[in-house]
Amino acid sequence: MADEIRRLSDDLARDPSSLVFMPLADALRRAGQLDVALRVALRGLDRHPYVADAHDVLARIHADRGDLERAADEWEMALRLDPAHAQARLGLGFVDFRRGNFESAEQRLSQEDGGEQAPSVAAALAHVRSALSARAGTVAVDFKGSESLKSLKPEAAPAPVREYPQPNPSHAGQLFSSVLDGTDQTALLVDADGLVLAGSYTDANAQDVSEIVAAELAGVSSEAERAMRHLGLGAWTTMLVEADHNIVAMTPAPLGSLLVVSAGRQTPVGLVRLLLDRALTQARDWLARVS
Q1: Residue range(s) of every CATH 3.30.450.30 domain in the chain
Q2: Which of 149, 158, 168 has its CA nearest to residue 193?
Q3: What's the CA gap between 115 and 169, in Å, rounded?
Q4: Which pLDDT band holds residue 143 (cuts at 50, 70, 90)?
Q5: In terms of C-beta density within 10 A (0-12 exposed, 13-18 middle, 19 or more buried), how is residue 40 classed?
Q6: How far apart are CA 243 and CA 251, in angstroms?
Q7: Strand ranges of the sheet holding 257-264, from the earlier edge strand across to the other edge
Q8: Domain 2-134 - what CATH class?
Q9: How many CB atoms lie within 10 A of CB 288?
Q10: What is the spatial distance between Cα 280 and Cα 237, in angstroms, rounded to a whole number?
Q11: SS3 label, residue 74
Q12: Exposed e or buried b per residue across 209-234, where buried means at least 16 C-beta atoms within 10 angstroms of its C-beta
């Protein structure tokens, strides 16, 4: 990443009017250098205000900074310049999704614009429709703070497709039942795209909100890796969130997946960690069998 940033910076220095500011700003964003990325993008847009992709890059920078309002404005501008801009439509759909406007997100993402739907948009639409089908009225997820764990970050191109197992859904849903020992405990295995692989997650009203939680957790592993890299702490192994009603523990699992275990707030933290270890062993064995 550092070599890429250095090379792009040299290219831009040789020709300040070139469009290389876009990949440079995006590389800086992915490296976590958001302030520098913002300055590069804004300077580039001063020279090229009518390039839709440039507004898309700036929108993603704003989104990573947690400023969804400005991100939405830039994606709207990108769509005005290029009504078929799939990434701008994807970004606006995710903004709606993060705000809980699932119906609006579905409407945005389902617009075909007369052509074949981009894979990234189709995947996002599947997330939104899963959330809509799982939600009966307004569902409150037990743990708070999930918004701070995941930055909105649609990429310029769809990520390489991972080969995940296609298990029997009825068996997969009960995968962790043997390692959990309380009615207030739940475990969920999520793939890198925010889709449920196994297990389940129920809220305080005993409603299954697995699809919603999985979608919100998409990208948590990559964000945790980036934070650890910047802090110089090595690879991340466990994340523990203590909320009002639950303790939620997370750990990376095979094939780029994420394992989440939740228990009632009165549960000792040591027991939650033990449950996470047991569930991880179960997940590894299961993924090895079904892959």
Answers
A1: 164-290
A2: 158
A3: 33
A4: very low
A5: buried
A6: 17
A7: 196-199, 186-190, 257-264, 246-253, 239-242
A8: mainly alpha
A9: 10
A10: 11
A11: helix
A12: bbbbbbbbbbbbbbbbebeeeeeeee
Tokens of 5: 């940033």
What per-residue confidence (pLDDT) applies to 232?
Answer: 75
48's CB contacts (< 8 A; 6+ apart) are 19, 21, 54
Looking at domain 164-290, its CATH architecture is 2-Layer Sandwich (3.30)
Q: What gap in Å lies between CA 95 and CA 100, rounded to an integer?
A: 9
Closest listed residue to residue 151, CA positions, set 13, 17, 247, 30: 30
Could you tell me the pLDDT band of residue 48, with boundaries at 50, 70 and 90?
very high
- Which 3-state string (H, E, C) describes 17-52? CCCCHHHHHHHHHHCCCHHHHHHHHHHHHHHCCCCH
Tell me the per-residue pLDDT of 154-202, one tens digit each, with 9 for 90 and over: 443 333 444 444 444 445 778 888 888 767 888 999 887 778 888 888 7
Question: pLDDT averaged over the chain?
Answer: 77
State the burial class of residue 17 (Cβ atoms within 10 Å of its Cβ: 0-12, 13-18, 19+). Answer: exposed
| Buried/exposed 145-179: b ≥16 CB within 10 Å, e otherwise | eeeebbbbbbeeebeeeeebeebeeeebbebbeeb
Q: What is the pLDDT of residues 96-122, one digit of tens each?
A: 777 777 777 777 777 644 455 555 566
Lowest mean pLDDT among 161-165, 207-211, 261-265: 161-165
Q: How far apart are CA 193 and CA 214, in angstroms?
A: 9
Report the run of H or E that residue 253 belongs to, with start and end: strand 246-253
Residue with tokens 């990234």: 120
Residue 223: both structure tokens together: 């964000």
Chain centroid to Cα 12, Å, comes to 30
Cα separation of 190 and 193, whole Å? 8
Q: Residue 266: what residue type?
A: Q
